[in-house]
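Changelog note: in this version the structure field was regenerated for every chain. One regenerated record is shown below for reference.
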Amino acid sequence: MKGLYVVAAVTMAGVSAVFALLAELQKRYDLSTASLGWIGGAAFAAALVTQLSLARYADRGHARLVLRAGVVACAAGLLWFAVATELWQFVAARAVLGAGVGMLVPPARRAILLTADGNQGEKLGMFYASYLAGFVFGPPIAGAIAEVTDVRVPFAVLGLAVLATLVPVARLDLPEAERGAPLALTERRVLRRLVADRRVVAAMLVIVSFRYSVGVFEPLWAHHLDHLGASTMVVTLSLTVFALPMLLVAKRAGALSDRYGSRYTSVLAGFATVPLMAAYGWVTSIPLLFLLVLPHGLGEAVESPGTQAALADAAPKSDAAAAQGLGEAAGSAAAAIGAFTSAPLYAWAGPGPAWLTAGAVMAALLTGSTLLDRPVRSRLGPHPVAA
């Protein structure tokens, strides 16, 4: 599965370059603050469409095809960023990039879940660590290239790098289901079956809370630091500071889900990030913001693999990719809402209310999840349904 880790790292390096250079693009092409939400939201909306429509085909014998299509779309989105000059082009390019991520993640997680031997939390943590590696090294690399050359060049370089990952993808031995047989009526209703399960919905609400925060983070973070006077390199380094601790503990953080229960660890970590998210808008010191993102990153390192494992525990193995795709789709919808609403709110009410609102929404979603399915600390490993 090493090829999956390579794809995840390189793809996330390209995605994080958009995070890091968004403020620079705003100044170069005279984009409004509210329009940043359209750029970020387009990615999550496009991912929502591909996750709902294509993720299930990874369970039906087309995992390799879906994964390769995702890689190509990610590369195309980054290369489009390199030549875009107008708002609609940036929105479209970000949508293509988001659609690609929406296609490649479900089959990748499916392969990990079906090949894990009682340590799915740890394996998902390793996959997440690969994503984080891209997030750690992508922004400073993109920032350095932009400083030396032009803000468009990093997108071209990273787009070609993503395209090159088709080589390790071609060598992957992905578990494939039988293809060609007509879908049974119950299989065609797989999404309805999943959303009817209270435990599945509870696990999804934690994903929604986490991904909503990501949607808010994308259009606001670079702009917020730029508003405080930070340079492009400082913005890129802040993302590295955010993600580096996550990378260092990702494998152990994923193992916590196997040891204490994925529901328990993901919900607890989610609640721990709420006050940090709510505080960002009231902090005007850049060094203090750097300090705040450290525990936030550690919390998300525990939360992310925990949410994926919790959803896997709640859903049948036969619907592994569909469940992950549904969770990603719900998360993408939440992220799109976060991106579309937070940037206009920031422009209208200022940073404090924008970030505080994000924290309040996260807390409400986590509370709803807790009421649906109370998290219980456990040392018994994965839920019997998944086993």
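Spot check on this record: Confidence is low (pLDDT under 50) at residues 180-187, 380-387. The radius of gyration is 19 Å.
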